[in-house]
From TrEMBL:
Signal sequence segment: none
InterPro entries reported for this sequence: FAD/NAD-bd_sf (IPR036188), HpyO/CreE_NAD-binding (IPR038732), L-asp_N-monooxygenase_NS-form (IPR052189)
Domain named FAD-dependent urate hydroxylase HpyO/Asp monooxygenase CreE-like FAD/NAD(P)-binding: residues: 15-172
Domain of life: Bacteria
Provenance organism: Pseudomonas brassicae
Identification of the protein by name: NAD(P)-binding protein
Length: 471
């Protein structure tokens, strides 16, 4: 892989973001016939990892088992096969203690990052045979504009890049961090959910406050456990829901394929509940019918009206997230253990504000569900686990703000991500479909609803690579 500080004359495709989304697109483009110059702008030294797969702790695992996480849309067993090779070579020896088939293992995120990088490296070798080049610029795109024949990006290091086409493969933007409430000491700031080293600076017996109760909260519990924390943990989220554990249910009939008349979110919800009741009556895990729904989500979401989408987001989304986006067994087991020990409590409450509490603590003001008054809760440290910000108008990063100001993008449906056509071509503020700017992955949340899972991104990468190769 080549790295440079000089701006290229004109690349064929500028990929903005080199996490999993950008790496999968680059790999697919390198495998396409023809010669092309790809330029990936990504501030991390390694491509393919992003924030999600840069974790180094073994306890931070994928949320899906190996059979569900292939980066090759043409081979759903690709990760399982790669993982078997790693185990045969003596990598990840801890897996032997789980005593389950390789396809059912939940690999550490760091190991998955290595897998993604290896597949990209292999694609580079294939591309090199036809003269294709992948160049990595270690920086961040802070602005983008149209120029004759393509686009030009301004970089955080002061340089610029140009390309015929650009792809927004920015991945996920974290929700706004809880504000820092002190000038020194780890206990007066919001701690990163995956920063085990920082968590070792927290009083082991002190109360830790966590905002958000989704999958990031589960990762936070794992981090605290590995850091040696043994004190109380108080979790607060709007609905007080937490992820169910992901199990391996048997196959279930694809009832949505059999009945295409089910179109609205309400119809789907009623039918799904009935399917789950039928499964449980037969002694089958309720997760079996639920798992058949995923393949139909893009169709169901795209054909729904804005009113139906809004109803889903307002009334169904929290329960959908907790049932569908399930926790890996190790993290779920820790959550249950902490609840049994009486150390973990999950509350339905909304965060109002944050302030210091003494020399080495933090205090949050919360409004608990069904209560009008605001309650003050103090702790030794605070962790923000609220997850992802999909509304680009609220993302405090230079590129989203510049794209909005230039009118090159507009918010997607329900302000989820950005607007684009079915093939990923971005729609600007005037409603014009761009012939130069594309997007994939999480930025297309409003287009497809589920646009973050590995399989979703892999399919989009293949389709977009084929489209760009024809241009």
């Amino acid at each position: 892989m080549h790295e440079t500080t000089a701006a290229p004359r004109m690349a064929d495709v500028l990929i903005i973001g080199g996490g999993l989304s950008g790496a999968l697109l680059a790999a697919q483009l390198l495998r396409q016939p023809g010669r092309r110059h790809l330029l990936v702008v990504e501030p991390r030294r390694e491509l393919g990892r992003g924030e999600a797969y840069s974790a180094t702790e073994l306890g931070h695992t994928l949320n899906g088992n190996a059979a569900r996480m292939s980066v090759d849309p043409d081979n759903p067993d690709d990760l399982t096969q790669w993982l078997q090779q790693q185990l045969n070579a003596g990598e990840w020896p801890e897996a032997a203690a789980q005593a389950v088939p390789v396809a059912e293992l939940f690999p550490p995120r760091g190991l998955f990052g290595r897998y993604a990088r290896q597949r990209l490296s292999e694609a580079q070798g294939i591309g090199a045979q036809s003269g294709s080049l992948l160049e990595h610029r270690c920086a961040e795109v802070v602005d983008l504009e149209r120029v004759p024949g393509g686009v030009r990006g301004r970089l955080s290091d002061g340089g610029s890049v140009q390309a015929r086409f650009a792809v927004l493969a920015t991945g996920m933007f974290a929700a706004a961090h809880t504000p820092k409430v002190g000038d020194d000491g780890i206990n007066t700031a919001a701690v990163d959910p995956w920063d085990v080293a920082a968590m070792r600076g927290i009083d082991p017996q002190g109360t830790v406050l966590i905002i958000g109760s989704g999958l990031t909260m589960v990762d936070t519990l794992v981090s605290l456990q590995q850091a040696g924390h043994r004190g109380p943990i108080e979790v607060f989220s709007r609905h007080g829901l937490w992820p169910h554990v992901r199990r391996q249910p048997p196959a279930w009939e694809d009832f949505l394929a059999a009945d295409r008349s089910l179109r609205s979110p309400l119809q789907l919800l009623r039918a799904l509940r009935e399917q789950c009741r039928q499964a449980q009556a037969q002694g089958i895990d309720w997760q079996a019918p639920l798992d058949t729904v995923r393949v139909h989500i893009p169709r169901l979401w795209s054909q729904a009206s804005d009113r139906q989408r809004r109803q889903f987001v307002r009334h169904v989304r929290p329960w959908w997230e907790s049932h569908h986006h399930r926790a890996p067994p190790q993290g779920a087991a820790l959550l249950e253990q902490l609840c049994r020990e009486g150390r973990l409590h999950i509350h339905a409450a909304c965060l109002q504000s944050v302030e210091p509490a003494g020399a080495d603590g933090v205090c949050v003001h919360l409004r608990f569900r069904a209560q009008a008054q605001v309650t003050r809760v103090a702790g030794a440290a605070l962790v923000n686990s609220t997850g992802i910000e999909y509304d680009w108008r609220r993302v405090a990063r230079p590129l989203p703000q510049c794209l909005l100001q230039r009118g090159l993008i507009q918010p997607g449906p329900l302000a989820l991500g950005i607007a684009a056509d079915a093939g990923g071509a971005v729609i600007d503020a005037d409603g014009v479909v761009s012939d130069r700017l594309f997007a994939m992955g999480p930025p297309l949340r409003g287009q497809w609803w589920e646009s973050t899972a590995v399989t979703d991104v892999a399919l989009q990468a293949k389709a977009l690579a084929e489209r760009l190769a024809r241009c």
